[in-house]
Amino acid sequence: METAAVERVIAQRIAHFGELGLLDTDDPRRTTDHFFALTVLLAFNEQPNPLAVDHGRLRATMVDGARAFVRAYGTRR
């Protein structure tokens, strides 16, 4: 699946989570950009060689990014 298609699917899910009150977003597309920047983009920047991936570091980067995303966009109940 191409990157744009994946981003569209994630944006749809983020919009759905917003409708459910689980995420605080007025712009699901921009929110998706932030999610990818905090996770996938950062992971690629930290480990640009796919043949020499440190899986533990990759996982830590993705988890930290997801946590930052939830802190930024998660609703306060």
The number of strands is 0
Q: State the secondary-structure class.
A: mainly alpha
Shape designation: globular
The helix/strand series, from N terminus to C terminus, equals: HHH
How many structural domains in the coordinates? 1
Largest sheet: none
Number of helical regions: 3
Termini separation (Å)?
A: 36 Å
Q: Please compute the radius of gyration using only Cα atoms.
A: 14 Å
Describe this structure in words.
The chain has one domain. It is 71% helix and 0% strand. It contains 3 helices and no strands. The chain has helices spanning 3-19, 28-46, 55-73. The radius of gyration is 14 Å and the shape is globular. The protein starts with a helix and ends with a helix.
List its salient traits:
77 residues
Q: What order do the helices and strands come in, and which of them pair?
A:
Layout: H1 3-19, H2 28-46, H3 55-73
Helix pairs in contact: 1-2, 2-3
In short:
The protein contains 3 helices and no strands. With 77 residues, it is mainly α. The chain has one domain (3-73).
